[in-house]
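Open question from group meeting: does this chain pack into something compact, or does most of it stay loose? Before anyone orders reagents, we agreed to write out a predicted structure and look at it together. Recording both the input and the output here so the notebook holds the full record.
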Amino acid sequence: MKTIDPITLEIITEGLISVVREMRATVFRTARSVAIYEARDFSCGLFDATGQVVAQSEDIGSHVVPLPWSVEQSLKELGDSLEPGDAILMNDPYRGGTHLNDVTIIYPVFNDGKLVFFPAVREHWADVGGAVPGSMSGTASEIYQEGIRIPPLKIMERGKINKAVMELLLSNMRVREERLGDFNSGMAACKTAERRITELIGRYGIKELLAAVDSNLSRSETRMREKIQSLPDGEAYYEDYLETFGPDGLEPLLLPLKLTIKDDQLTADFTGVSKQVSAPVNSTLAVTAASVFITLKSALDPKQALNHGSFRPVNVIAPEGTIVNVTHPAPAGSHGEIRKRVIATMLGALSQICPELVSADIHRTSFHNLIGGIDPKTGREYVHYEWSAGGNGAFQAADGPSVMAAIDWGDLNTAQSSEVLESRFPLMVEWTRQGVDSGGAGYNQGGLGMRRSIILTRGTASYSLLSDGAVMPPFGILKGESGATVDSYIVREGKRMDFPTPGKVGGFPMKAGDRLILQSAGGGGYGDPLSREIDRVMADLRSGFISETFAREIYGIVLTSSGEIDASATERLRNKILLSRMELKVVSSSATFYATVGSSKKRICIINRKEADQLGLTHDDRVELLGPSGAPLRAWLVLDDKIKKGELPLDGLGLKVLGAEINSKVWIRPLYVPEVT
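Structure tokens returned:
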């Protein structure tokens, strides 16, 4: 490898990052979709001739980090035929994509007839066909219902667009003018990158440029290996669930993680994960691996630039044909939900190793809301894509931010502009506010989610929702409480209308005057709620972040009739809450600790009936088990009078998750789901 002096290295490094930033500015200024130019649901990246990430900027991690899989697959299928002026278009999840709405342009750049770089743009196209406007249906059962699937193909050949292919694609998408405008914005960004790369080559020469790339990859790899090596060797475990629904209600899909650290290598192993299902809760290997890396990079090395070298010490095991490595023909639209769940399992496992570096669970879902139809005023199709950012989990050092883009969202807007929405669509934002009581309680409190009311002002429309976390709330760590779940419902003529499958809706018919109420999830709490200082609780109360009921029931705060602290009553109530906590002695058992539900399984917790009565719980209620470290172990209650009072049977995996031992005490509590106003 050619050596390069450090000053030149930094200049070239910043030059390559500037190429990506100019690409972003180009897309931002020229795109047609509100989701792109207003909400910034797009990303740009620069790749070398082998598909390795060379540079990115303020991009969405969930776009950029999976992109190497797309570039690699495109090279595999089309690499030998690429020429100057060609451009590749693709969105196929099974070929390294994310979900069908994320359409990618990959543009080869040549120097003296040799392929040297790939600028790439991944944009969320608001519609790519399929069963419902916006293409993301909460009730999709196969990939064909989610839109048109585009393998890597040459949309441009020697500088000329393939008009027949483009017409075929646009004819299968809604609001074709927007789609064409978004494509043109991506092409403009790639051509901008080509000009700037050519200028850099002219200034420094291709050998110097590639030497800088190699140096950057090597030092990023070294830095990530050093960060991993700073952690203790060993294994950590966590398990979480995604939500599907059957005839009897919730059918959770198990997502287990074994995290292994050995020297300067980290392996995330999802062996045992639920098989893929005919529901939109599956995603791709690229998304799963990206989610592992995003969590690790955010925790261990958040400030340094990202490139492919950082990926090298990280291994991911994700069995094929599962919800984390989907295969044809299962739906793959749930990349945002799988991503958040993989991030959550990573946070849960890392909380056992380095709790000072991670947060509690983030807002559990990307919360995709789609409203589309034909505006009777203009006679034109429209699709509005709405996501409401939620609360971030709390940290050791601070409360979690409210209505915040999570670590996988980059600079994505957290609350979309009411003015733009109302000027483009037959919709009106009645109000937008933070959800009171939505943040998980703790010594540090999780961030609040967002509530929004959107009115359909004229005509009819179709509403779809693809989300997770409508039943299972974001978890706290180190005894912190759960944040609020997501929620969505229609108010028609003053009456609330709930959907039969929470968090998953496919083409619900809306009428003029309908109000759509959206509630994003809060973040989990960090640390014991009873350890939060009273003055901090009172500040939250006065700021409207929590209600008096929440302050009393969760934090044990009693107020006088004048709204001041009743110190003696508060002390008594806190002591009462503390004494009511049930701790059980862990005993070994040969029992089976999972029950089959649908196509998956869920963890069960077996206790004596009298203790369940004491907790106010019955069969199949959800509980949390809390040990001395990390995140809670969640389970469904099974009552068995053969179990001795005061004892809790637990398996080896459960012990590892909780950091507990046989004969140690484990706190059991009902799974708390905040009620949001």
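Observations to bring back to the group:
The chain is about 30% helix and 25% strand.
The radius of gyration is 26 Å.
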